[in-house]
Design brief:
The complex is a heterodimer of chains A (343) and B (278). Chain A is an alpha/beta fold and 343 residues long. In chain A, 39% of the residues lie in helices and 17% in strands. In chain B, 15% of the residues lie in helices and 39% in strands. The chains are: A alpha/beta (343), B alpha+beta (278).
Chain lengths: 343, 278
């Protein structure tokens, strides 16, 4: 992995001036500059690695990862960022780094940090694609999220942001040829959310797993089908195994990649790119949480005592453990209760 | 109209009168000063006619609620009482109030000596940062109050639709069970789960821009061997799939029966056989 080369200023005074001007603009918002930095995983395969916490003025809501894959004639974005401003910054950076126009945005999950920047792409005539179930969730609830983000991040940060439900919708796995590069869009079923999409770049073997994978961060079970999620993780494992053995550092100078990074073929939704070994931690969290909630539910533990009784110290060091684990546990308990009532 | 219904109505009216001032009142909930809330002051006059209320009152009751809710739509509330329900002196009512909810009187629970303990646990919707109050009224008229400040507010909490459709299909289904060993003469814990959307009427469907009509459970009556042990007038502050944990005193073998009435006057009934007395 290496940092994508930035547009280093040339010697001409004009370029210097332009560079200084753009630097001033960037300096006005510190993490806009950070959004310009992308990791390069393979030739034409990049990712902007975002914060893993909760939206806050400090991180400007720019949570989670946004990837892009550069083809011969165009670039495909994987997710759209957390605000209109973020979306614009990502679009500019992806086109600058890749040198090709962005021709498509793929939304992997209907979560605010992946969808709120979509309007910035749509305004440039760039189509936004998602699974039909994700598009429906975006339309039905993202206004609420936007309202809340405005409160947390401020009107200025969210200026121009609006909900843009994806106009291109798919219902099953498909392969597309976008920007002159073949990408598989895999819908593994209802996993972390009903419309999960995984983007697999056949040329490099890199997999964009979206919210199905988070690294050292508690996964949100809110929209999930835990059994489906486990199956999706198995699918990811199989996918990366199938790719193993192929030349997987095409286009990368060998020295630039730290040894551990060579097999980091999975771009998670949250945290740095990882190898398939990192899937185990996500799997363990889901299995452990399900087991704990089930046993507490069966024992008649009341909801008021649930969160305290369902602490899992093994994961206490992960990002978001404090707000999200309790929510996950309560959500799963209530799902069991609903299932009991429906019997 | 019985006394209790009119009480509840008075409370709702008091809250209604507070209408224009309510937004302001919400801003003025001071976590450290439960008395300084305009809605509460109005409720206090309307429901309790300014009678003295002892607080804190740990010897009588305590209230447990999360300081920060996991989900504003389902906030667990646990009210524990520390008074034996004797015929000569017992807790007759427990009022559950949520100051900054659109309808602050969430529930009025009625107990008898046959309840054994006037404990109650349920889940409520919480609209904004607010004080939650549990007020016990003795059969002799004294009032005791416990309060907790709860931080909760709505968010992206709408779950995917899978469950919503299933919810209506199982409308009125109930699970009723007695927890643990049952011993004659000793308060036993029962849990009643009701499958019901309990729509508040205040939630807009973002797709249709229409408000889902209010439709909720309004009354619950529980009897053991024909004698009332718990009844409750409840409101749409109670969460979807209303859930109540409470006590009753079994004696010999008998039936624990729950009757639930919703705002469409649908009645649901369930019975659990209790084999006590060994």
């Amino acid at each position: 992995m290496k940092q994508a080369e930035s547009d280093y200023p040339g010697r001409s005074a004009r370029r210097w001036r332009a560079w200084i001007a753009s630097l001033l603009v960037l300096a006005a918002s510190a993490s806009a500059a950070r959004a310009q930095e992308a990791l390069t995983l393979a030739e034409g395969v990049h990712v902007f690695v975002g914060d893993t916490g909760e939206p806050s003025p400090a991180n400007r809501g720019r949570i989670g990862n946004v990837g892009f894959v550069v083809g011969d004639s165009g670039t495909v974005m994987i997710n759209a960022g957390a605000s209109y401003r973020h979306g614009r910054a990502l679009l500019a950076a992806a086109e600058r780094i890749g040198g090709k126009p962005v021709v498509l945005v793929v939304i992997t999950q209907p979560v605010q940090e992946f969808v709120m920047g979509a309007a910035a792409f749509a305004d440039q005539g760039i189509p936004v694609l998602a699974h039909r179930a994700s598009a429906a969730l975006i339309a039905s609830r993202c206004e609420n999220c936007l309202h809340r983000l405005r409160q947390v991040l401020g009107e200025d940060e969210m200026a121009g942001s609006r909900v843009h439900p994806p106009e291109r919708q798919i219902e099953a796995s498909t392969t597309l040829e976008a920007g002159g590069r073949r990408l598989a869009l895999i819908h593994p079923g209802w996993g972390s959310s009903p419309g999960d999409l995984v983007v697999h770049d056949a040329r490099s073997g890199v997999v964009f797993a979206g919210a199905l994978v988070s690294v050292d961060r508690v996964p949100e079970l809110r929209d999930s089908d835990p059994q489906g999620w486990l199956a999706a993780l198995d699918g990811l494992q199989a996918l990366t195994r199938a790719d193993a053995g192929r030349a997987n550092t095409a286009g990368l100078p060998a020295a630039a990649s730290p040894p551990a990074a060579a097999d980091a073929r999975i771009v998670p939704g949250y945290g740095p790119p990882v190898s398939a070994a990192a899937l185990d931690a996500v799997r363990d969290y889901i299995v452990d949480t399900e087991a704990r909630v089930r046993s507490l539910f069966d024992a008649g533990t009341p909801l008021s005592a649930l969160v305290q009784a369902a602490q899992l110290p093994r994961y206490a060091g992960w990002a978001l453990y404090q707000p999200v684990h309790g929510r996950n546990v309560q959500q799963r308990y209530l799902a069991l209760e609903r299932a009991t009532l429906a019997e | 109209m019985n006394t209790l219904t009119s009480l509840l109505l008075a409370a709702v009216l008091a809250a209604g009168l507070a209408g224009p001032a309510q937004a302001q009142a919400q801003q003025k909930s001071d976590p450290d000063n439960p008395e300084a809330n305009a809605t509460w002051q109005q409720m206090r006059t309307a429901v309790f006619q300014g009678r003295p209320i002892t607080t804190p009152a740990e010897a009588v009751l305590s209230l447990d609620a999360p300081e920060r809710a996991q989900d504003a739509a389902i906030v667990p509330i646990s009210i524990r009482t520390h008074v034996e329900q004797r015929p000569e002196r017992y807790i007759e009512r427990v009022y559950l109030m949520i100051d900054n909810n659109p309808s602050p009187m969430g529930a009025v629970f009625h107990f008898t000596p046959r309840s054994g303990r006037a404990d109650i646990e349920t889940r409520v919707r919480v609209d904004a940062y607010t004080h939650v109050r549990a007020i016990a009224e003795m059969n002799t008229g004294e009032l005791y109050m416990a309060t907790r400040f709860v931080k909760a507010s709505g968010g992206c909490s709408a779950p995917p639709g899978k469950d919503a459709a299933a919810a209506m299909a199982s409308l009125g289904k109930m699970r009723f069970r007695v927890e643990g060993e049952v011993e004659a003469g000793k308060p036993a814990l029962a849990q009643l789960m009701i499958s019901h959307p309990n729509n508040s009427g205040l939630v807009m469907d973002q797709l249709t821009r229409m408000y889902t009509p209010a439709y909720f459970v309004r009354r619950i009556q529980v009897s053991y061997a024909g004698e009332p042990v718990l009844s409750a007038d409840v409101d749409f502050s109670i969460s979807e799939n209303p859930n109540f944990r409470f006590y009753f005193v079994p004696s010999g073998a008998g039936e624990l029966k729950a009757e639930v009435i919703d705002t469409n006057d649908l009645r649901f009934e369930t019975v659990v056989k209790v084999g006590a007395g060994t």
